[in-house]
Design brief:
Shape: elongated
Helix content: 40-55%
Radius of gyration: 29 Å
């Protein structure tokens, strides 16, 4: 069955409870009278409660109503928060520069409201030193504790050790803040058209990025051997 309500000549009942274009109650009227009023107001007669006795109909611009409903549904989907799990892979003997780089990615993910799966990959004799991975995971968790918390404690998974960090900030909050920051940047760019492209690009780089870096991977994928 179609989800579309019946309108105008498709309504097949002898009388209806009519609601005016401003929401006022007109009362129970013959269908012919309701259609006459719809034509007089240059509106549609729309059945809004088919199971009522008699059915409730309203005078409205049905085309405008459908368009506004579609826009509301689109906005709701746009604002819907989808929990994403990013993945960051580290080696137990990672050098300071690489650590800072990867920590920066973890910080960005947590700021965006995403969870982060941290995987420590052991090679060869490193497998006999699991404490190295555990200490590295604890260090990372401490470094980002203002943005996230340990949702899943470190655990050994074959030749890997895994920990999951959860964000303090909800995804919806992060999305709202990102949109607000973007609006501020656009307003600033409009108010200052003479600013250099380099300055605009630098600010854009500081904004939370939607695209994952090459280190990202869905949590469902098995960790690399």
């Amino acid at each position: 069955m179609s989800a579309e309500p019946r309108i105008n000549d498709r309504i097949r009942v002898p009388e209806v409870r009519l609601v005016g274009p401003s929401g006022e109650q007109v009362g129970i009227v013959p269908l012919a009278k309701a259609l006459e009023l719809a034509q007089e107001y240059d509106l549609d007669l729309v059945e809004v409660a088919a199971t009522a006795r008699p059915p409730v109909c309203k005078l409205m611009d049905y085309g405008k109503f459908k368009y506004e409903s579609a826009m509301k549904a689109r906005e709701a989907r746009k604002n819907q928060a989808h929990t994403v799990i990013k993945e960051m892979k580290l080696r137990p003997k990672i050098d300071p520069h690489d650590y800072d780089t990867k920590k920066g990615h973890v910080v960005r993910f947590l700021k965006q409201g995403d969870k982060v799966k941290i995987t420590i990959m052991f090679r060869g004799r490193e497998q006999s030193r699991p404490e190295l991975g555990y200490r590295l995971l604890q260090r990372l968790a401490n470094d980002v504790e203002d943005l996230g918390f340990i949702e899943s404690n470190p655990k050994q998974d074959g030749r890997n050790m895994i920990m999951v960090l959860g964000p303090h900030k909800k995804k919806t909050e992060a999305m709202a803040e990102a949109r607000e920051a973007q609006a501020v940047r656009k307003a600033d760019a409009k108010a200052n058209p003479g600013r250099s492209q380099n300055a605009v690009a630098e600010e854009a780089d500081k904004a939370p990025a939607e695209d994952a870096v090459e280190a990202d991977a869905p949590a469902e994928e098995p960790a690399e051997a």
